[in-house]
């Protein structure tokens, strides 16, 4: 009972902007223990956000919030402090929460006396995560991706560290640029919609711009002669092996439709398609004959199962597959 009461108090303090780093660490650890904990936090957070969406519901929301406070058995003074909330401030202090297709992804804080607190969100293989950052930036994380966000409301920069693929709809703030750090280059924006694919296991890093403008900025791992400005419909690809930069016009939906649980591709190499399928479905695929990696495939994947996809590919390309001990093996068809 005391543990539950303590968690409620931490949630109250966090939403009120008064939780210290030690308390944030404890709250984040608690959220990461189970999906039920993450859902509970989401329900409490929704009480705060509903008034932001519809001012006419604010009175009712405050009633519901008062009920929650009453359950903590706190003093009348503490209750008045919480129910007399500044709703505009709540929006700025909205918690980071993994929602959508995958709920309860790993979230935790890392903090020392020298470094800021970080929240880490991830999307395991076979899932997609949706995250709302404290500044209301919307992020979709693709399967097998991880993102860290510095929890510092006072900083002049908004920064994330990405290993994997993510689509961003950045809330515009000209006073606080938004930067995506990859293992190769940085992507800097003020407010826009774009996709960054930067898996540390792959040899290319790609940024695809849908709306607004982004700048590709040098890092210690990649020195550019100057910043590169991308316009809507453009994609920059850096090849780590060839150390080459290529900017081209693309059909952006081919690179962003994954966030809608749909994949579209044109003449994708079979090797790249296999990696994509492994991440999307959380399976292991073994290629027994490397010659088939030269094949290309075009198509769309939405609600099909992995077996349905394999059947389609098997009837399109000269390959066959077998499933052995939970591993999919692909052979060249004789």
TrEMBL record:
The keyword Transmembrane helix applies. The chain crosses the membrane at residues 90-109. Residues 123-215 form the FecR protein domain. Keywords: Membrane, Transmembrane, Transmembrane helix. One of its GO terms (molecular function) is sigma factor antagonist activity. It comes from the Bacteria. It holds the Pfam family FecR. Residues 263-330 form the Protein FecR C-terminal domain. This is FecR domain-containing protein. The lineage of its organism: Bacteria, Pseudomonadati, Bacteroidota, Bacteroidia, Marinilabiliales.
